Automatic annotation (TrEMBL):
Keywords of this entry: Signal
Domain of life: Eukaryota
The protein's name in its UniProt record: Chitin-binding type-2 domain-containing protein
Lineage: Eukaryota, Metazoa, Ecdysozoa, Arthropoda, Hexapoda
Signal peptide: 1-25
Length: 92
């Protein structure tokens, strides 16, 4: 069990460094943007408008939310229903 947790931590650190090098993964205020674990739309999203940005949220070892901000690639937008980046999504 200890070995698998170390592997997860190493992978998360590696991904954090990789995203930081690419200009993504900025750390937003997780208490504002995290509603559940996984991908979350910005809470200030206008009704009927799909955002370009989304937040990847998880609970850290102390039970606090941690988040990283990402932008959907190319011309895709964040579909607030499927929680994925898509071309021409319909957002409520």
């Amino acid at each position: 069990m200890y070995r698998s947790k170390v592997g997860v931590v190493v992978a998360m650190v590696f991904l954090g460094v990789l995203c930081a090098r690419e200009g993504r993964g900025q750390v937003p205020d997780p208490t504002v943007n995290c509603v559940h674990a996984g991908r979350n739309p910005p809470l200030n999203t206008t009704a009927g408008v799909c955002p370009k940005q989304y937040f990847l949220c998880w609970l850290n070892g102390t039970g606090q939310w941690t988040a990283a901000a990402y932008n959907c690639p190319g011309r895709t937008l964040f579909d607030t229903r499927s929680l994925k980046c898509r071309l021409n999504p319909t957002c409520p």
